[in-house]
Amino acid sequence: MENKERKNVFVPPAEIQRQGKYISLVSTVLASRYGDSPKAYVHTYGCQGNVSDSERIKGQLREMGYGFTDTPDDADLVLFNTCAVREHAEDRVFGNVGALKPIKEKRKNMIIVLCGCMMQQSHVAERIKKSYPYVNLVFGTFAIHKLPEMLYTVLSRGKRVFEITEEEGNIAEGLPTERDRGAKAWLPIMYGCNNFCSYCIVPYVRGRERSRMPEDIIREAKELIAQGAKDITLLGQNVNSYGKYPDCGMNFAGLLREINALEGDFIIRFMTSHPKDCTYELLDAMADCEKVARHLHLPVQSGNNRVLKEMNRRYTREQYLDLIRYAKEKMPDLSITSDIIVGFPGETYEELCDTISLIREVEYTSLFTFIYSRRKGTKAAEMEDIVPYAEKSKWFRELCTAQEEIAGKRTASMVGKVYKVLVEPSENEGYLTGRTGGNISIEFKGTPDLIGKFADIEVTEAKTWILYGKIK
């Protein structure tokens, strides 16, 4: 991308100010229609990037006068922020939108909003338009900052609004944000993806790579730390591509060092990294920065070079393993996780075995493993795929069994060691939980006053995917 295009990725401040006027207009309409306390129900599907987007959506809704509820049954506005990465996620959205119909029949003034990656696909938006006439507002990933104007059109004119056009200027700085004010926080540093992996819909629904300016990221990081954030995750479809513009003045390794230098007691995490852009410089920065978690999520997808080429991943098995070797030399305590796709079109069992051999060589802490899911509009969707799903399921179980053995050995080696964790509530009564720097959960007994603080935990027992311990 040329520098002249870079200048067009930001929403002009004047447009943000214009949307502020619509915030006031919506607030007036809501007060006359619902009284003092209209309620919004916001449900987020998919990745942490969507969670971060929802925080900005909720921030705008709060300024417009909405409070929030945990159920759609008593909501005046229901918003689903959707995901398009897996077919199952799309099916869930359509099912849940269908379940809203009888609720809206009882609550005539309820506004239903669908947004996010799934809505950025024209065929999905068209299906919503034709088959779900009770949905009031649909917008894609490029129009979050326009929510006040779009919602005002719905409320004041009773018109359905569909906004899924791709726009150049969609990094909107200065939007209000509604966070839960807990000790964990998401911090987006860039948006979009230029990689066009043959199985992936993300570049089509999130657009091309756009990096925020480092001063805006540093400012937001300082705000988060001041608000009490102690576990900050930097977000991007490919964080390793951060700063690939002449006017940005900083790459991802440099950004890590800048945030690491900020005052405060906090942990820095990041996701997701693409292996083709993972550099020795980045790994050196991780090793040098004491606040950066010793955890690298580096999706490999396959351990076979032919399959990697068909996936358009643009690295080889050998190049990937070289990065792993260097990373472990620099950080012997590094925890490595990854994504694996099983049953990519044309993949053979022998090629799947190459992936299993790779996971045994790397010894991942954990894997996010998926059976290939066809995504309309991607190159892989046009490839011949003759292996039955039942056979792919057998491959999937074989790979997962291998990973369970590896994970079990790793967690067993952690018994007796002490780890600093950020204390969080646990779903198990009487227990608390925390993640190690390597992103492994430890459960332990403790009092609620520890939540949001760091604690040293000695591991006393190991299961395959979780540890148990005691406060040291």
CATH superfamily of the largest domain: Methylthiotransferase, N-terminal domain
Number of strands: 20
The major beta sheet can be summarized as:
6 strands, parallel
Gyration radius (Cα, Å) is 23 Å
Structural write-up:
By secondary structure, the chain is of the alpha/beta class. It is 38% helix and 20% strand. Helix 10 packs parallel to helix 11 and helix 11 runs parallel beside helix 13. Mean pLDDT is 93; it is low at 1-6.
Short description:
The chain has about 475 residues and is of the alpha/beta class. It has 15 helices and 20 strands.
Please write out the topology.
Layout: H1 3-6, H2 13-34, E1 39-44, H3 48-64, E2 67-68, E3 77-82, H4 87-99, H5 101-106, E4 111-116, H6 122-131, E5 137-139, H7 147-157, E6 161-163, E7 184-188, E8 190-191, H8 202-206, E9 210-211, H9 214-226, E10 231-235, H10 252-260, E11 267-271, H11 280-288, E12 295-297, H12 305-310, H13 317-330, E13 335-342, H14 349-362, E14 366-371, H15 389-412, E15 418-422, E16 424-425, E17 431-435, E18 441-445, E19 454-462, E20 467-471
Parallel strand pairs: 1-2, 1-3, 3-4, 4-5, 5-6, 7-10, 10-11, 12-13, 13-14, 18-20
Antiparallel strand pairs: 8-9, 15-19, 16-17, 17-18, 19-20
Helix pairs in contact: 2-3, 2-7, 10-11, 11-13, 14-15
Key terms:
15 helices, six-stranded mixed beta sheet, single chain, 38% helix, alpha/beta, Transcription Regulator spoIIAA, 472 residues, globular
